Amino acid sequence: MRSARDDQLVRPTVEDEVAAAGSELIGGPVGRRALIGVNWWTPVRVIALVAIGMFALGMVQKLPCYDHGWFFGATTQYTHACYSDIPHLYSGRGFDEGLLPYFDRIPQSLSGGMDYLEYPVLTGLFMEIAALLTPGGGTLQDRERMYWFINAGMLLACTAVIAVCAARTHRRRPWDALLIALAPAFALTATINWDLFAVALTAAAMLMWSRGRAVAAGVLIGLAAAAKLYPALLLGPLLVLCWRAGRMRAFLGAAAAAVGAWLVVNLPVMLTYDADGFHIREGWAKFYTFSQDRPVDFGSVWLFISQRTGDPLNDANDYATLLMILGCLGMAALGLCAPRRPRFAQLAFLVVALFILVNKVYSPQYVLWLVPLAALARPKWRDFLIWQACEVMYYLGIWFYLAYTGSGDKHQGLPPEGYQLAIIVHLLGTLYLCALVVRDILKPERDVVRRDGSDDPSGGVLDGAPDIFVLGSARRERHAELSQGARVQWGTGSRGL
């Protein structure tokens, strides 16, 4: 017998033509008499298992590097598109020597110029735990393989958390998380670096916010920002939306909890004490100084401009900061002037996408930051797959370009002109999805999430809240609504006399 709750679930094979066409591989669109969620195979469990399966396929794709590519021949890991930072940094950051991140200086013979670990504190802890779990026997190559494998297992757990949290964030739309589980770029980039840890904490934060638990969401945002800086950006959309809805108490609770959680994690590592008092520890600050000082790097619009013009763009930090400020002001205006208050997931996706687009580097694994947000912001299969195709093209492009530059006079791989085209493709793919999200905000009747009458399933206390502070045409409409309400109340009162 089908439950009332299952009757309310939005099914993508019913509302999305691409999902319906793709479902032919497994029997076609769901029928009226289909029994879903009444046995063990609930949507959340199915999505989690699919995500785990895709992650495993991504691990298989790294098999040529696991066998030999990370160790024998610099270009093999590029020609097979299976590069990962994880095995290289095991020895390159002193984990095999038992060095403690942020406290022990890395010998130059190991790091190639990096004196301390250049990752935030919680990511450093993640790396250290994996190093402690790595067996000490065998050759260095054996230990590097095992270190990657242990990290992959921990990142697999993060993937399951992301899938479950995303499936539960929109109560009536759990199947939207299938976009995350089946995203090809997600599977390909999952074990390049440690980004999935921060993504999992961010997904959990959005789940807590959708349940109206502002403080818990803030704590998770603070922890996520202690693992990777970008989750702190989510406080910006929350400020705008809570301001518009008159729910500033919820925002202040979340913001205070985020700052508190970040400090609890960072203060023990951040400060050192000597006879002159407290000082910022050099090892802790390495992530921030490295991010500030690094030149323009792979995947960014700045690298494209630099390669085309020959200008190293030493002022890229200033340009990126200016564009980020202007973009955030524009999003704040969008959030306050839109005819209907944007959904939290929409503004969250836009602000993180803006940060990536103007950043000095757009690494292939940064797509992991966007995939869960994109699935919640615009769960439309056609547009999501177009964007994913652009990201897969770039994923292949960067490795073949590195194979070209690392193969000496042979130049086997993708020449600079081809790599520049790959950069433009993946930048345009992200901009394409951003444009669609902005259109949905300006024309809320086109928002697929709101077609069934929903307001903001991921909005928590914002879901269904009235607008209190609005600007532009939305302000005029709000004043008209208030005036109409006052007239109705006055008329009712008159009739009661």
From TrEMBL:
UniProt keyword list: Cell membrane, Membrane, Transferase, Transmembrane, Transmembrane helix
Subcellular location: Cell membrane
Record-linked Pfam families: GT87
TM annotation in the entry: 40-60, 146-167, 179-209, 215-243, 250-271, 319-337, 344-364, 384-406
Entry keyword annotation includes Chloroplast: no
GO CC aspect terms: plasma membrane
Annotated membrane topology: Multi-pass membrane protein
Chief location category: membrane
InterPro entries cross-referenced by the UniProt entry: GT87, UCP010361
Molecular function in Gene Ontology: hexosyltransferase activity
The family this protein is said to belong to: Belongs to the glycosyltransferase 87 family.
Identification of the protein by name: DUF2029 domain-containing protein
